[in-house]
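Handout for the seminar on molecular recognition.
Each group receives one record of this type.
Step one: identify the two inputs.
Step two: read the structure output and locate the region that could contact pyridoxal-5'-phosphate.
Step three: write two sentences on what you found, then compare them with the reference statements printed after the record.
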Amino acid sequence: MSFISDNISSLKRQIPSYVKLVAVSKGRPVSDILEAYNGGHRIFGENRVQELLSKKDLLPGDIEWHLIGHLQTNKVKYVVPFVSMIQSVDSFKLLRAVNTAALKINRRIDCLLQFHIAEEETKYGFALKEVRELAGSDEVRRMEAVRICGVMGMATFTSDMEQVRDEFRYLAACFRELKQDFFADKDHFREISMGMSGDYTVAIEEGSTVIRIGSIIFGGR
Ligand SMILES: *Cc1c(COP(=O)(O)O)cnc(C)c1O
């Protein structure tokens, strides 16, 4: 077995079975992705549309691609035909664009709402108040071609794990509040995507159901 598949296997042994592992393959060659694929892995994450498009044509069609980076509305039409989840929905406008594009081609796209939980200014994402407005709006409730499956967030890039834990705990609390107030009858609203190579154990302790791992699987960058 290749070292990439070894890394995936040992990660999977460490995490609870309900936690989904997204192998983040940004910046990695197609050959690395194929190694993981040949070891049985199917869920991959990319953060750039152009890179995702050029890679997916060279790889097997049964890969589940998750978009995990900022998506511009003018690029929505390129990813909607094949992605299995957009984890980085960070505006009402984007959600609307995904719904419109998916309706046209008769697909339904699973989405996560990305929260801004880090202290850095540069990261995209909603505040809880904005998501409450979105989730409560008639327009969103009528959207037939997007399925809001939960929340996603990235913690501050810091070695202070207590700060990271607080941010994950906050995201999990937001999830629970939204579940109770807007999605109680929606079984598919159940995902909390948090945790990367440096903080996934803390994320899982705080309730993560989806971790997005690059460096541990493919090697340091
Ligand atoms: C790059 C990236 C990851 C993975 O980061 P690693 O530290 O390499 O595990 C996870 N999520 C997002 C949104 C990313 O951009």
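Reference statements: The longest strand covers residues 146-153. The pocket of pyridoxal-5'-phosphate is lined by residues 24, 26, 47, 68-69, 154, 196-198, 212-215 (CB under 6 Å).
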